[in-house]
Design goal:
heterodimer, A: 293 residues, mainly alpha, ABC transporter involved in vitamin B12 uptake, BtuC, two-stranded antiparallel ribbon, 4 strands, B: 399 residues, alpha/beta, four-stranded parallel sheet, 12 helices
Chain lengths: 293, 399
């Protein structure tokens, strides 16, 4: 293994890691606002991508429009997930929502499987034939595009959160739900809008993942869920900057371990990284101090 | 006189009832229980197998059904259960089938189901000390090498990959003498693809005179193949052999296109010679050569493909094997004296098992299939290549 191979693996991982970051942001935002984990989030993301694929088979569309449809569709699915798994179930038992979202994950996955017979479906990409070469160093054009688009989506999200009334309401509900309610903020509406916004972000991530592989498959749901949760824990539950950095980190580490130790050991080391964080820095990357007894 | 007029309709009615009863008695139902994966990412395998089995049953029934041992006629009825490609569910499905009046089971889809499933069957037929399930199973899809020897009740109609790739690499050597090196790509966590690379392709290629210059591994649900393809690019092999299922095969082929990895020849896994690969990446798969035991090149194969399509399935190398199985079962049922009565179910199962074990050869869709003493098949095959978005026969080694 030469040094350039390691650099290339890490750069690929960082670029692809932006999709993990988007998924991580979704998990972390929902947790931040509702203090609950939505395990159906990655399924929502991939579900959105499937809806956009289905529409693109009916009407030929440019790739960028397909990605946009994916974001919108996932936003709608996200709202439905909120209704079914959070709004209409009792919230006082934490396990209820957790299990409801597990059920929803399986449900969305099975709908996709039944509609496509589990067959991989081609998904459009942008700049997938572009490959930048600088001597031995090379970068995939489509991954660069994914990196730029994902970062643009993150900036829009940060703008929404910190520069709009909706963002103020969201942060208020996340920090002090009772006080927010006393100020006239509707918790239910804020929760629902969080699911729609994170759903849209996830839909974009789902589309980017599909575009980077070039193929959509129900096989994507589980690994994306696992990676999203790892990113959320490493980044710190509720921390958006943490999720962004953790997403890039997980992408880089994953590829580094793949290059150094092979595919059969790769996930073992990523899990080890997760355990290290859980043990020594349970509050995540940007938490001021470890929250251990 | 008056009295006889009253009796006459009753006699006619009784006679008609008798005719109806005897016709019901003469025409029985022979139940064949299919099972396989109809959930998850391998759902298409189960969907296709079920469609092909139902198409074959209709074909047989329209042709008069099957002649039973006591002279009656039997119509074939197919049921199909989903085992979700999961060993525990597969075993549970088989136990449930064993509790019905099905005389034979056809399945499963996945090798990781077939292996433990065959393990719960009675190992040696007639062994009173072995309480294993006594149900003949005829497998159409689970392809991992050498599984039928696990039990005397297990039979398979799957291609012999070892021979297929041995002949394929030898043919490539003969046709393209300038090609010297092979690089492998393997989906490491799937029993079939792993077995086929490590135990078949990697062994058979050097035997044909090729040098294996390296291998890249990935997992079934991987999404990023950049590192593996970079390794592949560095090896500069003449031939890239990919032992993976359609989802990752397409992922890798697309990554190869991005990184401009252009081997002189591509070889694929038998299971990838399906619609899925073309649906996922027809452009990138162009030219890939795959040995397969099914192609609609004979009249019988065309009929099977057309009738299966009418049932909503696609006949490929796996599902078409189910058509052949149904035709073999028809023959065995007719020659072994199966009566398909409710009280002869276990006897019928034994007769079918014995009938299958006695077969030396059967007629397949591409020609004669040899049967081994271990319950395996040696099937005729062709080499297909992806051409313009469909599979075209490149070479028939049997011709």
């Amino acid at each position: 293994m030469e040094f350039i191979d390691i650099v290339l693996s890490i750069s690929d991982g960082v670029l692809f890691g932006t999709t993990y970051a988007l998924i991580g942001i979704g998990f972390t935002m929902i947790f931040g606002v509702m203090h609950k984990i939505n395990l159906a989030y990655a399924a929502t993301s991939i579900g959105g991508a499937y809806v956009s694929w289905a529409i693109s088979t009916l009407v030929p569309l440019p790739a960028i429009l397909v990605f946009l449809i994916s974001a919108i569709a996932a936003g709608v699915i996200g709202w439905l997930v909120y209704l079914c798994c959070f709004r209409l179930v009792p919230l006082d038992t934490p396990l209820t929502t957790l299990l409801a979202t597990v059920g929803m994950l399986i449900f969305i996955d099975e709908v996709v499987v039944h509609e496509t017979d589990g067959m991989p479906q081609p998904y459009p990409a942008i700049f997938d034939d572009v490959f930048f070469e600088f001597g031995e160093f090379g970068l995939r054009g489509d991954l660069l595009f994914i990196f730029v688009l994902s970062f643009a989506a993150m900036l829009v999200l940060l703008y929404l959160l910190y520069r709009t009334r909706l963002g103020i309401a969201t942060r208020a509900v996340a920090q002090q739900p009772m006080a927010a309610q006393l100020c006239g903020i509707s918790i239910e509406r804020t929760n629902a809008s969080t699911f729609v916004i994170t759903g849209m972000l996830g839909g974009l991530a789902g589309a980017m993942i599909g575009a980077s592989v070039g193929v959509l498959s129900p096989l994507l749901t589980l690994p994306v869920t696992v990676k999203g949760l790892i990113v959320t824990v490493i980044g710190g539950l509720g921390s958006i900057p943490g999720a962004i950095i953790a997403g890039l980190m997980v992408g880089a580490f994953e590829n580094l371990f793949l290059a150094l130790r092979g595919v059969t050991e790769r996930d073992m080391y990523v899990m080890l990284l997760l355990f290290l964080f859980l043990t020594f820095r349970p509050g995540g990357l940007f938490h001021r101090s470890a929250l251990r007894d | 006189m008056k009295r006889s007029w009253i009796i006459a309709p009753a006699v006619v009615a009784a006679a008609m009832l008798g005719v109806a009863t005897s016709s019901v008695a003469a025409e029985r139902t022979v139940k064949i229980a299919g099972f396989g994966a109809k959930s998850g990412v391998v759902r298409s395998f189960g969907v296709n197998t079920e469609a092909v089995m139902r198409a074959a049953a209709d074909h047989i029934n329209k042709g008069g059904g099957v002649k039973l041992g006591d002279g009656a006629t039997g119509k074939i009825e197919v049921t199909f259960d989903d085992d979700r490609c999961n060993a525990e569910e597969g075993i549970s499905v088989l136990r449930r089938i064993a509790g019905t009046d099905a005389v034979v089971a056809v399945g499963p889809t996945c090798s990781n189901v077939a292996e433990p499933l065959f393990g719960i069957l009675q190992k040696k037929v007639g062994d009173a000390g072995d309480s294993g399930v006594q149900m003949p199973i005829f497998t159409d899809t689970a392809i991992k090498g050498g599984l039928a020897k696990i039990s005397d009740w297990a039979f398979r109609n799957v291609p012999n990959e070892s021979e297929m790739y041995q002949k394929l690499f030898a043919w490539i050597k003969a046709e393209h003498g300038e090609l010297k090196t092979v690089y492998g790509g393997v989906e490491e966590d799937f029993a079939h693809s792993r077995f086929t690379w490590h135990k078949v392709m990697k062994v058979r290629a050097p035997e044909a005179g090729f040098e294996v210059v390296g291998e890249s591994k990935w997992l079934l649900n991987d999404t990023n193949f950049a590192t593996q393809v970079r390794e592949m690019k560095k090896a500069k092999a003449d031939i890239v052999a990919i032992s993976a299922h359609p989802f990752t095969t397409c992922g890798v082929l697309k990554e190869m296109q991005r990184q401009r990895v252009k081997p002189k020849l591509l070889v694929g896994l038998t299971s990838s010679s399906s619609l899925e690969t073309l649906q996922g990446c027809a452009k990138q798969a162009e030219g890939i050569i795959i040995p397969t035991s099914f192609a609609p090149v004979t009249p019988a194969a065309k009929v099977a493909a057309d009738l299966s399509a009418e049932k909503g399935g696609s006949a490929d190398l796996h599902s078409a094997a189910a058509w052949e199985i149904m035709m073999v079962l028809k023959g065995v049922i007719e020659t072994s004296g199966v009566t398909a009565k409710p009280d002869t179910v276990q006897d019928d199962r034994r007769k079918i098992r014995d009938g299958l074990a006695a077969l030396k050869e059967t007629e397949g869709l591409l020609g004669t299939i040899q049967r081994t003493a271990e319950g395996e098949a040696i099937k005729p095959y062709v080499y297909v290549h992806a051409k313009g978005g469909s599979w075209a026969v490149l070479h028939d080694p049997g011709s």
